[in-house]
Amino acid sequence: MSRNAYVTDLKTLQGECTANYVRLVRLLGDLDAGGTREVELVNHGRRLGALCLELQERAPYTSIVRVSQRGVLDGLIETPRMRVHLYHDVRMAEVTDFQRQRHFDGRYRYPNARMHQPDEKLQLNRFLGEWLDHGLAHGHSLDLPELP
């Protein structure tokens, strides 16, 4: 029985990247290049750590943000971190680096040497969206006004 090859769903990927752009812009606010913002994550009164955003570069058409998390398991496990490029002219944000791995293809043959899923790029951008949504829904920051 043969499986059909995965076909990249560009509409879904672009939708994720557009939604992530909106989420990041809300969380970053008026942060300047080199600045950081930490959003403390709380769920049912329990502190879960902080979502850390570092604006590494800001230019007229692009910005680069490092997204990471710190929390109670620091030192025990490698916490997620990614580098995200924001493209201001098209209002999209794309994961370009995850856990020190760079450049993700739109699709992969499976199995492969790095064990990437066929839709690895889409999954990484979805993960970023869920992570940012959690920060927007359950996060608290002392230097940001309350988010609607």
TrEMBL record:
Pfam family, one: DUF1249
InterPro entries tied to this protein: DUF1249 (IPR009659)
Protein name: DUF1249 domain-containing protein
